[in-house]
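Recall that a protein's primary structure is simply its ordered list of amino acids. Everything else, from secondary elements to tertiary packing, is in principle encoded there. The following example makes that idea concrete.
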Amino acid sequence: MTWTKRQKRRRATASRRAPEVSLKRAARLYRKKHREAEQLFLAEGASLVLESKKPPLRLFTAAEDVRRLSTLTTPTGPVGVFPFLDVGAEALLSTRERLVLLHSVQDPGNVGTVIRSAHAFEAGVALSKGCADLYNPKTVRATMGSIFHAPVARELDSLSFLAQARDAGFATASAIAGEGSAPQTLPRDRLVIVVGAEGAGLPEEVLAVSWMRVTIPSRAASLNAAIAASILLYEAYMRVLP
């Protein structure tokens, strides 16, 4: 028997021994502490589930099961159970030339939307400590399936991550409400765009280690994190297109 065949048999045996993801077990994934303990999360809706390149560990399709697992008033369809997808900081820095670091952005919709924009513009996402949970059902839903495509690192210390990025050759552009450089001046090389929550913005210690500060011209007093990050990601993406 070849080594490849032995591996296949061992994997098949391990798969048979792995406990099935029961409905009761899946329902517990609504809470973060259970998601973390199991390293599993839920994705609801056929279009979202189909975005994954790998099949879910379990797919619930019966109407009564979906109603029990759904966080929506009107369930949208099947619910899949998937293993965690996030990567470490080093892996993130080695897989994308453009990244966005969200600092203490607590709204799940904003975090999910930024992941969707990162997927659209070939970027990765770093989430600091204090950001909305990547695997919160609202965050997952807001990604519209991009959670399966854009690399994401989470629970990072912003200053430590920016130091790692600098050592890896990345420039840093922090978004501020006024008096920053125009988005058109973003560097073409490896870049981390840093965006804070709309109200709080970025702390001075983060701004102090930034290579540049950038401001999006706007008649509004401020833009929310998802809009600001998306505009800057698009601008950075356009600068490297042939």
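Residues 225-240 form the longest helix (16 residues). The chain has eleven helices and nine strands.
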